[in-house]
Amino acid sequence: MLATERNASPHTVRAYARELRGFADFLAKQYGARLAIAKIEHPQIRAYLGELYGRGLGKASVARALAAIRSWFKWLARQGVVEQSPAALVSTPKLPKHLPRVPSIEEMNRVVETADDEGAAWPERDRAIFELLYGCGIRNAELVGIDLGDIQWANEAILVRGKGKKQRLVPLGDAAAQAIRAYLPEREAKLAAANGGAGKPSPALLLNARLRGNGRLTTRSVGRIVKQIALAHGLPADVHPHTLRHAFGTHMLEEGADLRAIQELLGHARLSTTQRYTQLTVGQVAAVYDRTHPRANRAWAKQRQT
Question: Does the active-site annotation cover 245?
């Protein structure tokens, strides 16, 4: 159902299967392998979550396990296997709000504009990676999934395949377009030189340097490239491809973009997901208040700025 009806990614299907196998193993060990699904009640689910905590798992990991169990029981209820979901009576662990540190506009411009320096493994490609991640706000998986035919030069847009196989068009900015045009001749030359000129053509826009497999760059490689270049230019060690996506949304919001427009560009199914970016700029809102409201505590404001 996840794969065929909800168009969930293979990664999501594997994750749900892993969580449910862990739950089933726990039930079989604690209550016997012949325990009927209809006999499972919420205390048993809570006991499983308690065991996960006992293994040292954090709240986020326990919440993911509970989400998979809830989804499974909702499906079982629709199929008539159970009357109602016992997981509905189990509360989700309260997760702490970790707001990611987003590089400033100046920091991002500095890194993106120098991503193709001599330290890069494939300068033209790596510059295109940064321009697309930050300039278009796309996900890592969306980036590596881009084919040459997805670039609509006439419309100045890129066709992106997001979560659930949903497609959307994102604007192709001038800087990103220039980076891609600089990279394409290098890409063609590398393909032509492969195997003495007998290299197979690849539809993928972004290729790995050694043209392994089908030549398409992997998300893991993109993560390694982004971290290496970011560290070399003074950004913190926790920078990864999704950081550039966060920076895209945050900086657009800072510059006055409409929240719903940002939602469309990022491909968020719910506006509530996009609204997380408002939390990232709450400091700026406070700063505006400090500077402009006649009843603001000026001394406190100056102390905050120092």
Answer: yes
* 294 against 14, higher pLDDT: 14
Catalytic residue among 74, 163, 168, 276: 163
pLDDT per position as a tens digit, 57-95: 998 899 999 999 999 999 999 999 999 999 989 988 887
Axis crossing angle, helix 123-136 with helix 105-113, rounded to the nearest 10: 150
Beta strands in the chain (DSSP E): 151-152, 157-161, 167-171
Q: Mind giving me the DSSP string for 243-292?
A: HHHHHHHHHHHHTT--HHHHHHHHT-SSHHHHTHHHHHTHHHHHHHHHHH
Annotated active-site residue in 59, 110, 227, 242: 242
Among 127, 139, 190, 251, the one annotated catalytic: 139
Q: Per-residue pLDDT tens for 142-195?
A: 999 999 999 999 999 999 988 777 889 999 989 999 999 999 999 998 888 876
Specify the residue for token string 């079982």: 76
- Cβ neighbors of 40 (< 8 A, separation 6 or more) are 27, 82, 86
Average pLDDT taken over every residue of the chain: 85
State how far the alpha carbon of 145 is from the alpha carbons of 30, 55, 95, 121, 179, in Å: 43, 36, 32, 21, 18
The residue type of 176 is A
pTM recorded for the entire structure:
0.68
Tell me the three state secondary structure of residue 98: coil
* Known catalytic residue at 139: yes
- The whole-angstrom separation of Cα 168 and Cα 98 is 29
- The catalytic residue among 127, 187, 190, 245 is 245
Q: Which residue in the list 127, 187, 190, 268 is annotated as catalytic?
A: 268
Q: Which tokens is 222 given?
A: 């993109």
Q: Is 242 a catalytic residue?
A: yes
What distance in Å separates the CA atoms of residue 47 and residue 57, rounded to the nearest whole number? 14
